[in-house]
Amino acid sequence: MDGDLLVKAFVALAPVVLLLVVFDRLDAFNLISAQEILILLGAGGAIAGLSFVANLRVMDGFPIGFSAFTRYISPIIEETLKAAPIVYLFARNRVGFKVDAAIAGFAVGAGFSVIENVWYLFTITDANVTAWLVRGFGTAIMHGGATAIFAIISHEMTERQAESAAAHYRFNPLLFLPGLGAAMIIHSVFNHFPEQPIVIMALTLLTAPATIFLALIRSDHATQQWLAADRAAHEQLLAEIRAGHFSATPRGQAIDAIATRLGEKAADARTYVELKTELILRAEELIHAAQSGQATTLTDQDRTKFAKLETLELTLGRTTLAALSAQLGFTRNDLWELSRLHARVRGDA
């Protein structure tokens, strides 16, 4: 590989990857692992290949010129495909904070742009370094920024669902349409100015990262309030369970009724309720510690408790677990916090 190609590759590929690293460093909660980011980058790269094929197939069916196609059709195809893994993460409750949504979205867009630019590097060999500056600092940042903004808006739209009882959750794809529309518009506007590449590159560099930064700063205070409120509520719930006062509450009475019907497994049901509450609270404590810059080392006790929780889940069965969960009223946020802790425990095992 000659020196000229290396320079072109660097300016085409490095900016979006470096910006992804910056966003990741802004994640004080450190809840998206390097492995997960790599998976999202890979997903974005795969989507770039799929988009290439889809664009060729769809272009044949539209009697419009290439310029009109890139302005109005390809943004719909590409942003819809890039949105798919983010929607999957939301549906599977793998996204908690807005910063995580933004990083996940930008990672998918970055993976898309890297593969797209690699393909162009080896097919458009006569382009000068300025053209690759535009692709690296303009097109690539646009791809990452558009998907990140989609993820941020989607987080905003689905936040109420995450804060409601998980037992009542119903996936609603309509909530993702505003973010998808915004991503398509951003992409389309960018493609409207092929004759002014330097101007659109500068605007992209000014607006896309700044918009993401502002959204993350704005969400920081709300995140702190969410953590503080959740932690206080779960501390109170655990104290009531341990003091025996929980049984006098309507939720406690409902759980006791379920436990009583289980006969010899009644004690297991009550232990499960206490242990799950304790682990959710432990997850919140570790997230708060990470945000405050404190050590977040897992203990053997954490691992033992998760092992016990898994044993109880097998013993009680899905039907009983669903009945207990409905009465406990844990939110999707709570279950997401628990899943992140569980992933750390499995990763350290």
TrEMBL record:
Name of the protein in its database record: Protease PrsW
Lineage, uppermost ranks: Bacteria, Pseudomonadati, Pseudomonadota, Alphaproteobacteria, Hyphomonadales
Pfam families, alphabetized: PrsW-protease
Transmembrane feature ranges: 6-26, 38-57, 103-122, 134-153, 174-192, 198-217
Gene Ontology MF annotations: peptidase activity
Ion transport listed as a keyword: no
InterPro entries (UniProt xref): PrsW
Biological source species: Candidatus Viadribacter manganicus
Protein origin, superkingdom: Bacteria
Keywords: Membrane, Transmembrane, Transmembrane helix
Keyword Ribonucleoprotein among UniProt keywords: no
